[in-house]
Amino acid sequence: MSFGHIDEKQRLLAERLMLAVALPGVAGAVNASGFLVVGSYTSHVTGQVARFGDALAQDQPSQAQAAVLLVVLFFLGAFTATALIERAKRVLRARYTVPLLVEAAALLVYAWGAHGHLSESRALQLSALLCFSMGLQNALVTRISGAVVRTTHLTGIVTDLGIESVRAVVWMRDRLRERSVFRAGELVSLFLADPEWKRLRLHTSIFASFASGAVIGPQLFIHFGQIAMLLPCGVLTVLAAFDFLTGLRTRDDSDHEDHRGLPAMAKK
């Protein structure tokens, strides 16, 4: 579904904000505040696989089973998101509305259950909900961005920042060598247009958003309890409404053009 009064610049701005600001913040808040409740980070699977190995080495089968369950739930979240997106694509409906609302619903169920003293089984169930929601979000953003962006973990982002920072320094050195004196406006213009800087700005925005969510989420949880989860749920609902009204597009909508202006990068 698409409304003609949403012009291209507004659409591109909204999509960039969604990928680089809104969803990383949601993941940061969910991951950090979730740790306060269930004692486990749930926005990536690396730690769970390591936990599985540790549990086997220490002959703790219940811990190993829990780690496997959380990895499976993350997988099921990614599977569910992709299946819903493909289904919506076939029937020509807004592709991301339902996955975003499913993620919001999972977080609402988590908030409803995250109160009082939690038994080990209840904590595992809540962890599974968070892993499912983060797997769903990761697959959703992967489809939107053409595997350019990840919003639920920062290992790849920090690696890219290190690589791109070196490239940025080389870029600056080369530009300064080209002319003895640079007008500030000219340098800024080149900065805004160059793909290297675009990648650096994109990944810096994602890192800052995730970190902000990781700081704000636990603070809100400490002061307001599980009702604080309404904030990320509200963000997801707004994004779902945007997709329903305007129709977000994916990288595979065109084999040759990136509609959001995101730089073409190798898949991770």
How does this model look, in words?
- Helices cover 74% and strands 0% of the residues.
- With 268 residues, the chain is mainly alpha-helical.
- It has one domain.
- Helix 1 crosses helix 8 and helix 6 (155-178) runs antiparallel to helix 8.
- It starts with 7 loop residues before the first helix and ends in a 22-residue tail after the last helix.
Shape: globular
Q: What's the multimeric state? A: single chain
The secondary-structure element order is: HHHHHHHHH
Whole-number mean pLDDT: 81
Count all strands and give the number.
0
What's the number of domains?
1
What is the straight-line distance between the termini? 31 Å
Structural class: mainly alpha
Q: Strand fraction band?
A: under 5%
Give a brief rundown of this model.
This protein is mainly α and 268 residues long. Helices cover 74% and strands 0% of the residues. It has one domain (8-250).
Topology:
Layout: H1 8-38, H2 46-57, H3 61-90, H4 97-113, H5 120-145, H6 155-178, H7 184-193, H8 195-224, H9 230-246
Helix pairs in contact: 1-5, 1-8, 1-9, 2-3, 3-5, 4-5, 4-9, 6-8
Features of the shown structure:
268 residues, mainly alpha, 9 helices, disordered C terminus
